[in-house]
Design goal:
The chain has 54 residues and is an all-alpha fold. The protein is built from three helices and no strands.
């Protein structure tokens, strides 16, 4: 039983199903969505710039 539950959790995590459900719990205005995506893009750009020369 534990093994099956662990496999299910990994599958859900890989597919991103839980993240989608959490995002749909409340309405997000388009401006908030855009701001969140821009923040994530800035963060990933910062990380890629930091580790570019490694």
């Amino acid at each position: 039983m534990d093994k099956a539950l662990r496999r299910l959790k990994k599958k859900i995590d890989r597919e991103g199903t839980l993240k989608v459900v959490r995002n749909h719990r409340h309405y997000e205005k388009p401006s908030e969505r855009r701001r969140r995506k821009e923040k994530a893009a800035r963060f990933s750009a910062m990380l890629s710039a930091r580790y570019a020369d490694m």
